[in-house]
Amino acid sequence: MIRVLVVDDQNIVRQGLRSLLEMMSDFEVVGDAENGQQALNVLAQLAQADRLPDVALMDVRMPVVDGVAATRAIAQQYPSVKVLVLTTFDDSEYVAQALRAGALGYLLKDTPMAELAESIRMVHKGYNPLGPGILQKMIAQLPANAAAKPPAALAALTPREREVLQLVARGASNAEIARELYISEGTVKFHITKILSQLGVRDRTQAAIVAHSFADWL
């Protein structure tokens, strides 16, 4: 059972998400909040009851405390709670701020419910789902000459690690990478951990951005 906290300033959105998620057997909505400050208050109460959510669905633009600030606070105070942003705003700056603050994924509110549910499951497992076009928007914000200066860390990757990185950049899961390269999922996890450390990035999303930035070199 995946415990979920819903954070959105629109009551109809909160109630709608709660109803839809609770129709699925693997989700339990343990609370909701209308802004970031209220979310932190709810989390404090849930922590006392040993009922912290596994995933927080977080809007970006909210009164009192916005989603980016709340995500940053959650990452610091409740690191076991994974944040998945769900918003109407696909501006690249919002995306970058949310991911830097600690969000694992970023989706738009027009995402089909089945896809949203699967993204929550992915975030719970540590993956980084991004809505259609989100990664491309972030890549488009990179300096035009970025590809001219590949970091030395990329040169240190083994041929196998480069193959894994290319598949990560395509959005492949560990299972898909394992099937593609005929290796075990455990080996995939080992390679990804090493790649993240080598590149000095926090997660698969950041690794994918690096891979897209230097695609010609890879």
TrEMBL record:
It comes from Gloeobacter kilaueensis (strain ATCC BAA-2537 / CCAP 1431/1 / ULC 316 / JS1). The keyword tRNA processing does not apply. SUPFAM superfamilies: C-terminal effector domain of the bipartite response regulators, CheY-like. The lineage of its organism: Bacteria, Bacillati, Cyanobacteriota, Cyanophyceae, Gloeobacterales. Pfam families: GerE, Response_reg. GO terms for biological process: phosphorelay signal transduction system; regulation of DNA-templated transcription. This is Two-component system response regulator. The modification 4-aspartylphosphate is found at residue 59. Keywords: DNA-binding, Phosphoprotein.
